[in-house]
Amino acid sequence: MIAIPVKTDKENPAVTTLFGKAKWFAIVDNGNITIEKNELQSGRAVVESFVARGITKIIFNHMGGNPFMLLQKANIECYHSGDDRIELSDAIKKLNSGELTKVDSTNMSKFVELESMHKGKGHKEHDHSH
């Protein structure tokens, strides 16, 4: 089963930039898609519920380091949806055709927000060319 955080419960919603606090998750089970309200309020709780349900893959746009490490520990594969807006059906097609980047410990720094403990302190790149 695949879980994907989405923006709405409408048909073919866009993948959301949220993970643990996403309002909705699309669950894909043998090609059947259901969109479920997320009542949980943390990445940890979401991951624990996915483990209990037998989710094997996640497609995400943005995720903090803690939920990512929990997913890795649970052997749930993580795939990045890309930087552009993407709708659910396209994300699933890209996953099935091998077009999405699988995220693991070797490339996680490119896709996972490792500074998630420092909310609100965005690290801006400084331009040193004067």
Description:
This protein is of the alpha/beta class. It has one domain (2-113): Dinitrogenase iron-molybdenum cofactor biosynthesis domain (Nucleotidyltransferase, domain 5, 2-Layer Sandwich). The protein has helices at 43-53, 65-73, 88-96, 108-111, and strands spanning 2-6, 24-29, 32-37, 57-60, 63-64, 77-80, 101-103, 112-113. Strand 2 (24-29) and strand 3 form a beta hairpin. Helix 1 runs parallel beside helix 2. The radius of gyration is 15 Å and the shape is globular.
Short description:
The protein has 130 residues and is an alpha/beta fold. It is built from 4 helices and 8 strands, in the order βββαββαβαβαβ. It has helices at 43-53, 65-73, 88-96, 108-111, and strands spanning 2-6, 24-29, 32-37, 57-60, 63-64, 77-80, 101-103, 112-113.
Overall SS class = alpha/beta
Number of helices: 4
Described by the principal axes of the CA atoms, the overall outline is globular
What is the gyration radius calculated from CA atoms?
Answer: 15 Å
**How much helical structure, as a percent, in the residues?**
25-40%
Listing every helix as H and every strand as E from the N terminus to the C terminus, the arrangement reads EEEHEEHEHEHE
Strand order in the largest sheet: 3-2-1-4-6-7
Q: Which runs of at least 5 residues are low in confidence (pLDDT < 50)?
A: 116-129
Measured by DSSP, the beta-strand proportion falls in: 15-25%
What is the H level of CATH, i.e. the homologous superfamily?
Dinitrogenase iron-molybdenum cofactor biosynthesis domain
- The averaged pLDDT comes out at 89
**Oligomer state of the chains in this structure:** single chain
